[in-house]
Amino acid sequence: MTKYIQAVKGMNDILPEEIDYWHFLEAELRKLTDVYGYEEIRTPILEKTDLFQRSIGEVTDIVSKEMYTFTDRDNTSVTMRPEGTAGVVRAGIERGLFYNQTQRLWYLGPIFRHERPQRGRYRQFYQFGLEAIGFSSPEVEAEQIMFLVRLWKFLGIANRLELQINSLGTTECRTKYRYVLIEYLTKHSDKLDEDSRVRLNKNPLRILDSKNPAMQEIIAAAPVMSDYLNDVAKQHFQRLQELLNAAEINYKINTRLVRGLDYYSHTVFEWVTEALGAQGTVAAGGRYDILIEQLGGQATAAFGFAMGMERIIELVKEFSANLIKPNNPDIYFILVGDQAQKQGIILAEHIREHLPNIKLITNTQGGSFKNQFKRADKSAATIALILGEDEVVAGKVTIKYLRDERPQQTIFQTQLISCLKA
Predict the structure, then answer these.
(1) What is the pLDDT of residues 280-321, one digit of tens each?
(2) CA distance 314 to 320
(3) Of 75, 193, 253, 271, which residue has the fewest beta carbons closer than 10 angstroms?
(4) CB of 127 closer than 8 Å to CB of 62
């Protein structure tokens, strides 16, 4: 027997039994983006590798270890997108979307990272994100956090999530802090792991994000960024806190929160949970005022976040599964006999034309009435339409109620549309 081909490790199938969760979440996200005035943008899965090296940073885990990169046939190094923001910024610069204007954009699509697969974490996974381009105030930051609060409440998972925030300050703040942090970490270089030694002089802030248990004592005693914020950064961060307090949104200031990408400044945030084991972050983002200029555009303020769809769906499955209504058919059409099959296919199309919102499955695989009725019951349809030889001759059709204790009825086919509407 021929050996079957398995999926690539870490690439997850989304089966029909799970898709209702995805449709439910996607529909709510589309509603919310309309409510908040964000417009959809779709960018390619494949981008030039240089885009991610320049935006994310060459010494980040994503670029150094996790990207799917290869040389295509015209000898160009390309990468399957490992995050969404860089592609949105590239598209905006290339298409002139940011010049002297603001943009509120959202995206949804697959992301690729070669990580160790585990619960809620795959090598192809899906991210939803908001990007507010041209906005420098903390108000847009608070608004995006409020967007997520509204989503969590709708999904019934608000009490399972904690908001953590921090400020990375301005470029001036980070330069001062970077010097102090390198000096501190150098004194303890013998206790740093290999990755941290590589980052020490290139991106020392990333060392604070290490999950290595052996380094947690060193990290806990390290200088904190908040001690090196200038007045501009302090005022910006204070304003965000005032807005969150006014909206009665609970949060925790996490001085070790730096995020995994090089382009962040000022506010960074994460929504975390203890319900998913090690994969605690479900949504995260921050301000990236330097990125657009860094990628060749005009200096432009920007703020955004991304959330992992799989992780949100895991939480909904565990705590709010009752919100998902099964997408069962309304009608299962039983057709017994050759003439019934021929006439029934046409009649089914007549129903779909006049009642486009009705979900109808037509039996197209033959079989006895008994077997077809089993299929109708298994489909969880509300009613079964029955067309056999007697009904064909009489120009009639039988309606049988599968979920209600109501007597079946046989009517003329010309009455079917009005009867189904009723």
Answers:
(1) 899 999 999 989 999 999 999 999 999 999 999 999 999 998
(2) 10
(3) 75
(4) no
What does the H/E/C string look like for the chain?
A: CCCCCCCCCCECCCCHHHHHHHHHHHHHHHHHHHHCCCEECCCCCEEEHHHHHHHHCCCCHHHHHHCEEEECCCCCEEEECCCCHHHHHHHHHHCCCCCCCCEEEEEEEEEECCCCCECCECCEEEEEEEEEECCCCHHHHHHHHHHHHHHHHHHCCHHHCEEEEEECCCHHHHHHHHHHHHHHHHHCHHHCCHHHHHHCCCCHHHHHHCCCHHHHHHHHCCCCHHHHCCHHHHHHHHHHHHHHHHCCCCCEECCCCCCCCCCCEEEEEEEECCCCCCCCEEEEEEECCCHHHHCCCCCCCEEEEEEEHHHHHHHHHHHCHHHCCCCCCCEEEEECCHHHHHHHHHHHHHHHHHCCCCCEEECCCCCCHHHHHHHHHHCCCCEEEEECHHHHHHCEEEEEECCCCCCCEEEEHHHHHHHHHC
User: What is the Cα–Cα distance from 113 to 124, expressed in whole angstroms?
Assistant: 7
Are 9 and 117 within 8 A, CB to CB?
A: yes
| Angstrom distance (rounded) from CA 145 to CA 139 | 10
Q: Which residue has the tokens 């302090």?
A: 234
What residue type is assigned to position 112 of the chain? F
Ramachandran sector of residue 286 (left: φ over 0; alpha: ψ -120 to 50; beta: rest):
left
pLDDT given for residue 57 in this prediction = 72
In Å, how far from its chain's centre is CA 320?
A: 17
Compute the mean pLDDT over every residue in the chain, rounded to the nearest whole number.
91
- In the numeric block, which tokens belong to residue 188? 């303890």
Q: Which of 148, 166, 129, 150 is nearest to 304 (CA)?
A: 129
pTM recorded for the entire structure: 0.89
pLDDT tens-digit map of 148-160? 999 999 999 999 9
Task: Kindly state the tokens that stand for 21.
Answer: 């969760």
Q: Which of 87, 88, 84, 92 has its CA nearest to residue 111? A: 84
